[in-house]
Amino acid sequence: MNAKQWPSEWTRGALGMSVLKVLDAGPTYGYAIATALEEAGLGSIKGGTLYPLLTRFESAELVTTEWRAGDGGPGRKYFSLTNAGRAELTRQIADWRAFTTQTLTHLNGDPR
Amino acid sequence: MNEIKQDQQWLTDFVLELSHQGVDGRSIGDAKASVESHLADSGESAEEAFGDPVAYAHALELPTAPEPGFPRILIPALLGILGLVIYFPSISAATQREPVSFSGVEFAMFLVLGLTMLLVAKNIFTVVKKWWVLLAIWLAVVGLGILASVLPRLLGLPLWEVSVVPASILSGALIIGAGFWIRASINSSEGIVRLADAGVPEQETAVERVMVATVPWLMTIGAGIFTAGSLLI
Known about the structure:
A: alpha+beta; Arc Repressor Mutant, subunit A; 3 strands; 59% helix; globular
């Protein structure tokens, strides 16, 4: 897929809730999250950006983690959304919707 | 193969930086295993996926413990060096069948060396990133010990004399005892905790294994080499 690469400041703003959204579908691991985001058209997210975010989520108890043995390779660290994480996702989606509506209203308005 | 080596170096720099920050062994093990797992899945190099290891270690913002005082290894290391300070002149004197003389210069040098080691210990994470600095420090320690054995004679300042046999035996015991103490200190330190399910294959190289096994006995080896050299000459 030849995905459009969005400006990094846009991706940064939406990354947290996008990751929470991927985890809302069920527990998964870092590389799978990055792949899911790329498939969703949000661009290529490097490990150096993704894991610090996941670590912050873990510290804030938005996710729990569990190491599972890999199939012949290294194990994988699975992240699961907590109830607090789910509530945070709902809040962020609502805020983002309000923000984008506000932005679009502004962009579609008549120039003064 | 070259990429694997580069990734190993990247991981070493990453782990060192986390250790330097005072992150606990379990969190370091977890962060390291996460990187290894991601690299295995993505096929990327560590540099490609995570960028600079030091910057990435900072970006993780892992909880850190208060900065420790001095490493546990320092006291036995200093005792071992004190042993060398006494052992070298004792062996020199033994080969000449004379009592060993101490002028105090060697003990002054020991104090200088002790202070140097304290400084090195406080900045150990900068020093260990360059293996040749460690080698230079070891050579300096052995070199200063050898210098201490000849300087009092050159200056002609013997203050007190001791019989070589007890001096050699006691200082030799001090060096060997320090080796055991250093080994115990290394074994009791937490190090990096490997996670049960992370399942990362052991990547430690043969050179690293030899280095870890040899470190406690560097002073004993140095004393052995000096003894053999003195007997041959």
